[in-house]
Amino acid sequence: MCGAVTAVVDGYGRSDTGKSPNFQVIADCIQPSVDALVAANPERTDDALLTRAVRANIAASAGCLRQEPAILDQRLLDKELIIAGAEYCLETGIVEFFDGMPV
Fold first, then answer.
1. Domain ranges, ordered by start, for the chain
2. Is 38 in contact with 10 (CB distance < 8 Å)?
3. In whole angstroms, what is the distance from residue 90 CA to residue 103 CA?
4. Does residue 56 contact residue 37 with C-beta atoms inside 8 Å?
5. How many C-beta neighbours within 10 Å does residue 80 have?
6. Under 8 Å CB-to-CB from 57, ≥6 apart: which residues?
């Protein structure tokens, strides 16, 4: 599981005091994905929520890459580049692609 997403989910609703500025920059990027999931499932705080938060963060990150960098636009349009979201499992070494892969 992603340590940064886990920290955001575990600390949801708590003060940010004491966190390193470097972590806070990362957490601020992850927070919108977690906010949306918690809003949709306010009673959920289990592993399923964490799994969904990790995947939502991956999808959001891949989406940002598809939208932002103008330098990639033409390569994406020409199908020379694919931006795909994937989750790497530390325990098994398996990479699961689930966002943006061609079918």
1. 3-99
2. no
3. 26
4. yes
5. 9
6. 2, 5, 30, 33, 34
The encoded tokens of residue 17 equal 């005091």
Please say whether the beta carbons of 30 and 64 come within 8 A: no
pLDDT in tens, the chain (103 residues): 677 777 777 666 566 556 677 777 777 778 888 888 878 877 766 777 788 888 888 888 887 777 776 777 888 888 888 888 888 877 888 888 887 666 5
Is pTM, for the whole model, over 0.70?
A: no
Q: Which two tokens stand for residue 57?
A: 């963060």
CB contact burial 41-51 (16+ within 10 A = b; e otherwise): eeeeeeeebbe
Instruction: Specify whether the CB–CB gap between 71 and 22 falls below 8 A.
Output: no
